[in-house]
Write a structure and sequence with these properties.
single chain; alpha/beta; 4-stranded mixed beta sheet; 3-stranded mixed beta sheet; 7 strands; 55% helix; globular; WH-like_DNA-bd_sf; ArsR/SmtB family transcription factor; DNA-binding; HTH_ArsR_DNA-bd_dom; WH_DNA-bd_sf
């Protein structure tokens, strides 16, 4: 493998993850926090700020925000990150970003101002009031994964940590950074910046209202409860396939096929092979069928 792997967590990363979740609230049915979290959070923020967030999109500028959060000095709190960003001139930001990407916001000064407004507002009205258990659980996850990485085989470690993601070597890629996230579970956020790829992965952490059968394990069962998904798994048993090949095999629309593939990915049954930010192909993780069987038996019999 031509790049090294790192596990990192700072609260400012979850500041972005939580805001990312709110920006993508139209996809609330796909996240574990459920629509109730969106409704409760909207009650906690001002109508004016809610309107600002309603106009935001996950676009190229938002992608740059993730890069800046990573480039901020280690150990910086959300408040220190915001102060660090405020102290940077547009010229400073151009220099920072240029080392990793040649895609810049159209107006760096406007980007900086809007980013500060949105992140500061989100931190003040939501994130600073977040239950400390969330940050504690994410720190523990990162510490445990870091300890495991010291002796694990890297490729197997990446796949196990991310529940089925693999990353192809790319020219110039030096480091893959794995960042556990809570709010956007079970989704992942993956951005590539030349030297580094940032993967904010679903940490499979659930706080409050725990059940005997965790959501990610229940998701495994639901992922298999559909004939087309079983057909995809059987097709992938013959080897890796592209998304286009899967669509042709199922003879379904791209949208419906994508939904089936997403549910199988969330359940951990298929491996997504990333080339930068794009998935090049999918392959079967047959061992996860045994994992699901053992969990069911342990729950029902034991």
């Amino acid at each position: 493998m031509d790049y090294r792997v790192d596990v990192a967590f700072e609260p400012r990363y979850e500041l972005l993850s939580s805001l990312h979740t709110m920006i993508c609230r139209k996809s609330h049915k796909k996240i574990d926090l459920t629509p109730a979290w969106v409704k409760d959070t909207l009650k906690r923020i001002t109508p004016e700020f809610a309107s600002i967030l309603g106009d935001m999109e996950v676009d190229g500028d938002w992608k740059i925000t993730y890069l800046l959060a990573y480039l901020c000095p280690d150990g910086a709190s959300p408040e220190e990150f915001l102060a660090w960003l405020e102290a940077k001139t547009p010229g400073d930001l151009y220099e920072l970003i240029a080392e990793y990407s040649q895609q810049f916001p159209k107006d760096m000064g406007q980007f900086r101002s809007r980013t500060l407004t949105v992140l500061s507002g989100w931190h003040e009205q939501y994130f600073r009031k977040l239950e400390p258990e969330v940050i504690g659980a994410l720190r523990s996850e990162a510490n445990e994964r870091t300890a495991e990485l010291a002796y694990a085989e890297p490729l197997a470690f990446i796949e196990r940590t991310t529940n089925g993601l693999t990353f192809m070597p790319k020219e110039g890629l030096e480091k893959l950074v794995l960042v556990p996230q809570y709010h956007f579970q079970p989704m992942n956020v993956i951005y590539h910046f030349g030297k580094i790829t940032l993967c904010h992965y679903s940490a499979r952490i659930y706080l409050g209202g725990e059940t005997d059968f965790p959501p990610h394990e229940y998701r495994m069962i639901r992922a298999l409860a559909e004939q087309s998904r079983l057909k995809i798994l059987r097709y992938l048993s013959g080897g890796p396939r592209t998304f286009t090949e899967i669509v042709r095999h199922l003879k379904l629309s791209k949208g419906i096929t994508h939904d089936h593939v997403s549910k199988l990915r969330s359940g951990g049954f298929i491996r997504a092979h990333f080339d930068g930010e794009a998935v090049s192909e999918y392959s079967l993780r047959p061992e996860m069928l045994d994992v699901m069987h053992r969990k069911l038996v342990d729950y029902i019999v034991n």
